[in-house]
Write a sequence for this structure.
């Protein structure tokens, strides 16, 4: 399993825990109130979710001629895939470092 996939799984598990904490702590009458009166656990779960989505967006192929996103592979919600160690399109390792369009040996 690639480290990016493992990292994404951990982030999603933390998101699940934060969501469950919010569901467990919220008051029943909170549902009809505005979001700005929501307690900290609502904001924590929401912003952590935004962070996880942005992290998934940031997983791109490092090859400057490719730059394909590894998680969001199309415009549909059903085009989600786990990130692998190599780009699904060109095979470049995701951890490869590119500088000025050329691969740099680590
Ligand atoms: Zn690629």
């Amino acid at each position: 399993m690639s480290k990016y996939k493992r990292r994404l799984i951990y982030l999603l598990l933390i998101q699940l825990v934060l969501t469950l904490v919010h569901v467990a702590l919220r008051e029943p009458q909170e549902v009809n109130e505005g979001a700005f009166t929501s307690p900290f656990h609502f904001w924590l779960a929401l912003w952590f979710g935004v962070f996880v989505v942005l992290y998934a967006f940031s997983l791109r192929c490092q090859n400057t001629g490719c730059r394909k996103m590894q998680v969001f592979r199309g415009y549909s919600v059903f085009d989600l895939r786990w990130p692998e160690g190599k780009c699904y399109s060109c095979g470049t390792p995701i951890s490869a470092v590119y500088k000025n369009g050329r691969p740099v040996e680590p």
Remarks:
- The beta strands are 97-99, 102-104.
- The CA atoms of residues 61 and 87 lie 6 Å apart.
